[in-house]
Design goal:
The structure is a single chain. The protein is built from 13 helices and 18 strands. By secondary structure, it is of the alpha/beta class. It folds into two domains: 174 residues, Aspartate Aminotransferase, domain 1 (Alpha-Beta Complex), CATH 3.90.1150; 246 residues, Aspartate Aminotransferase, domain 2 (3-Layer(aba) Sandwich), CATH 3.40.640.10. The strands form five sheets. It has a seven-stranded mixed sheet with strand order 4-14-13-12-9-5-8, with helices on both faces. α3 packs parallel to α9. Bound molecules: 4'-deoxy-4'-aminopyridoxal-5'-phosphate (PMP). 4'-deoxy-4'-aminopyridoxal-5'-phosphate (PMP) binds next to α4.
Amino acid sequence: MTKSELLYQQATHVMPGGVNSPVRAFNGVGGTPLFFDKANGAYIYDADGKSYIDYVGSWGPMILGHNHSDVTNAVCQAIHKGLSYGAPTEIEVKLANLITNIMPSIEMIRMVNSGTEATMSAIRIARGFTGRDKIIKFEGCYHGHADYLLVKAGSGALTFGHPTSPGVPSDFVKHTLVCDYNNLQSVKQCFAQYPDEIAAIIVEPVAGNMNCVPAKHDFLHGLRKVCDQYGALLIIDEVMTGFRVALGGAQAYYDIVPDLTCLGKIIGGGMPVGAFGGRADIMQQLSPTGPIYQAGTLSGNPIAMTAGFTTLNLLNDVGIYQQLDDLTSQLCNGLLEVAKKHNIPFVTNHVGAMFGLFFTSVEEVSSYADVMKSNVELFKKFYHHMLGDGVYFAPSAFEAGFMSLAHSDREINHTIDSANRFFKSL
Ligand code: PMP
């Protein structure tokens, strides 16, 4: 029995599924989840000492590669000054200044501890500011696990959603409308039906929770227009895309100005951080300047702020994003080429340092329905082949992949060679 297997066995007795977040349990690919011990650069090492090229990067934050010495040194220094004060610090101001400079649509920001808190709070402030209750989300987009966001679409775009999880009362999701991603018409229909009731649209600008599906340019800009027309707010959830698809996030990549932005992952450099921010007139409505309540014991924690500030400073150069885009293109093009050589129906999507791999004969994957047509059984086989060869992708056909600055030709070529052997074996 491997150490991972032993740990997993022990873990299942004391933690549901042996994990603290479901997708880690390998339910999407079968088999025993790996338990990890350490990571460095582009590599992650399991409890048995085997190394893997890591395309998960803690689900996004580790864009510099693991264990970057500047970040760990800064964190070590901060630790010696005390772990938490629950009171304002200089590093919070520095990080807020840096983020608002890089993302000008964020005039004011508030730090929280996770992406879930960021989206939850952004929606509260959107509702408080507009005085409206309904929100629109898109099927296949994930915005954390707040009750009213755990909603799947009904049979048609215009139906109210149903709770995706037991424990979420139907009443709690009755204000959530679910539309089709990349389908502006479905959104227009909602607004036509409820012209004065919709507080906000929340959208992943490059969906990364149904594998990787970029928004169409016209779709996102259409959302902006329809929000303006009806007096609703546009919330862009950049928890995953912020500082990943471009320095200024997807809003820079698509040249679109949201009213509110949600952030997480990279802005914490691997520590638990989220944030939401946007127009000053909206953010000023937040307690203590305004009546809309939001708070957090550990919000703006100095260690987390230090990790985030050091990480963002190292990323503050558009040249880095060209490098990340080149690396991701190299990986996707290489995989496409070997799939084609062996006649395997295969499609990739990528924006900046975020990518998706699909075993499908659909020509372009641009909707939730397209994603659902991909061959999950083949993905599972691919997954375990790659894992055996020391390549760690997200253990699900419905999660995006992440490139880091620590990846190089060596790791990418190893990945493509391994995929080539798999495709050849089919
Ligand atoms: N929004 C998006 C777009 C996400 O990808 C995620 C997490 N993957 C969240 C929100 C929730 O973030 P967290 O897991 O930190 O609560």
